[in-house]
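Re: that backbone. Tokens:
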């Protein structure tokens, strides 16, 4: 015990502190510049420091209908993709956790494969499948494409929660006469509720700002990330694009942080009970 206490109380070396700070700045300085140049008065080029600051680009972005249409499309796709992922991801996690068969780990790996593969591979494969079955590109093809990786997010969260949950509660509920529906409602669902919420929030965030897979499945539809990608080639639109980027950062930051604290809090509670 004395050795462990000494190890925990030992201060980090200068080198470790330096590279930690360097890594933090390396990750977050580009995001800082997005926020900074959303307020610049300069239209065409980036200067540091900016020649002046203004809020007019927020007003310009607010008044553009094409931005609002792209936001609406992205939000609708993300919402439906998340709903599909919650249903299919939960069912897949329950099946893999409950069943015992040869090749179970292979099946589990196959479920998470869409998010493990590069997005361009997933996008090309989906586009080929849509063309093979003569499915026209539309809102629903984007939903299908996004659901492929959103399912993985929910699946991983729910499966991890199933593995940490005690099967004795379900057995006790069944022994006391509760049917499958009551057992699910009063035992299983409360145990996996935070995992569902965390997985759903992450799935929504991933879907809302996904661009690579969307490019292959969207057709003529323009989601918000695709709109940003096309606007980047227009120098006069850079401040407006930065404003929209700020909006995406803030919108995706909230569910990601929420999912982190939901899973962290549950892990602490479960860990403390051991």
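Recovered sequence:
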């Amino acid at each position: 015990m004395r050795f462990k206490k000494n190890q925990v109380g030992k201060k980090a070396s200068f080198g470790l502190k330096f590279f930690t700070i360097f890594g933090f700045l390396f990750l977050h300085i580009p995001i800082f510049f997005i926020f900074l140049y959303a307020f610049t008065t300069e239209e065409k080029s980036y200067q540091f420091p900016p020649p002046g600051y203004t809020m007019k680009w927020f007003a310009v972005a607010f008044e553009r209908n094409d931005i609002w249409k792209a936001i609406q499309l992205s939000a609708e796709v993300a919402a439906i993709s998340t709903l599909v992922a919650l249903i299919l991801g939960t069912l897949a996690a329950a099946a893999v956790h409950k069943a015992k068969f040869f090749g179970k780990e292979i099946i589990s790996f196959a479920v998470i494969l869409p998010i493990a593969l590069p997005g361009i591979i997933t996008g090309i494969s989906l586009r080929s499948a849509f063309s093979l079955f003569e499915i026209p590109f539309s809102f629903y093809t984007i939903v299908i494409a996004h659901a492929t990786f959103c399912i993985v997010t929910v699946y991983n969260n729910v499966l991890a929660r199933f593995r940490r949950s005690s099967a004795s509660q379900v057995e006790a509920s069944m022994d006391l006469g509760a049917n499958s529906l009551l057992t699910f409602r009063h035992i299983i669902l409360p145990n996996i509720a935070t995992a569902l919420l965390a997985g759903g929030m992450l799935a929504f965030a991933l879907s809302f700002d996904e661009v690579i897979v969307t490019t292959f499945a969207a057709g003529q539809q323009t989601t918000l990330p695709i709109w940003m990608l096309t606007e980047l080639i227009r120098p006069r639109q850079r401040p407006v694009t930065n404003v929209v980027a700020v909006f995406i950062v803030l919108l995706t930051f909230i569910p990601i942080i929420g999912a982190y604290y939901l899973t962290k809090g549950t892990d602490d509670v479960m860990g403390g009970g051991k």
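Residues 65-272 form a domain with the MetI-like fold fold (CATH 1.10.3720.10). The chain has twelve helices and no strands.
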